[in-house]
């Protein structure tokens, strides 16, 4: 599977860095209430650096461990719902042996799909264009 390259920093990440820097600068006056303290300008200068470092590590953790996209979460929820319904039907004593075999095959396929979400099952966004043009 070819993994798509994602930029490490985006507009959202830089906005988070700026917002975190702004929050950190509001912590300087409570930490050093004296306006003539020589460490106060140093803390104001460190706030953007600390926010960039914190944002970098947050991005690293998210990129390293991954998070599900909404489309993958939707597929996972749908598959889990299908699995519950299949299990409920399998417990019923009123189904024929042929239908039971069919349900077991469907259950196996659903479990395989659940396991492979994010690995081999790719979920396309609804807004992305598809390449289904008829050549006839």
From TrEMBL:
<feature type="transmembrane region" description="Helical">
    <location>
        <begin position="43"/>
        <end position="62"/>
    </location>
</feature>
<keyword id="KW-1133">Transmembrane helix</keyword>
<protein>
    <recommendedName>
        <fullName>Holin</fullName>
    </recommendedName>
</protein>
<keyword id="KW-0812">Transmembrane</keyword>
<keyword id="KW-0472">Membrane</keyword>
């Amino acid at each position: 599977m070819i993994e798509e390259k994602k930029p490490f920093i985006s507009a959202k990440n830089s906005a988070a860095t700026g917002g975190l820097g702004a929050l950190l600068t509001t912590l300087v006056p409570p930490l050093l209430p004296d306006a003539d303290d020589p460490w106060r300008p140093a803390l104001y200068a460190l706030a953007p650096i600390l926010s960039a470092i914190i944002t970098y590590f947050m991005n690293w953790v998210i990129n390293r461990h991954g998070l599900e996209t909404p489309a993958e979460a939707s597929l996972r929820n749908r598959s889990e719902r299908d699995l519950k319904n299949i299990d409920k039907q399998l417990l019923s004593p009123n189904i024929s042996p042929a239908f039971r075999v069919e349900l077991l095959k469907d259950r196996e396929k659903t479990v395989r799909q659940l396991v492979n979400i994010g690995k081999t099952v790719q979920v396309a966004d609804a807004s992305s264009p598809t390449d289904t043009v008829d050549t006839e």
